[in-house]
Amino acid sequence: MAGVEKDLEEYQEEPERKKKRLSLSLQSKDRFNFIVDDSELSEAMKGSTVKNTAANNKWALNNFSQWYTERQKKLPLSDQLDPESLNMLLTDNHEELCKVLSSFVMETSTEDGKEYTLKSIYLMIAGLQRVMRQH
User: Where is the QRICH1-like domain (predicted)?
Assistant: First the structure.
């Protein structure tokens, strides 16, 4: 029991520590002291793209462009769409874009004619989506 009493005495002899208070004041003057302009923002966004992501975007766009060009050659003139593949990706006609992207997913293949894996298709579509967002 003597040990417990000794611990209790030591605890009672310790000076009380003040609790730190959390300040929720919004009056801090140097927290948000500058405004970023559009050019600085766009420059920061460009620098944030990882090299692999940029390479994936380029691969997806090149694949889509090659497929689109070949497809246009095979279609009759009456069925051909905008000759520029990037314009097709940036169209406001959502039904047309959906149809073209669906055809792309079904028809695209590797250079040796084999089907892409599902993961590759997913990465291509993700790359195309990033390209569309950048423009």
Answer: 56-134
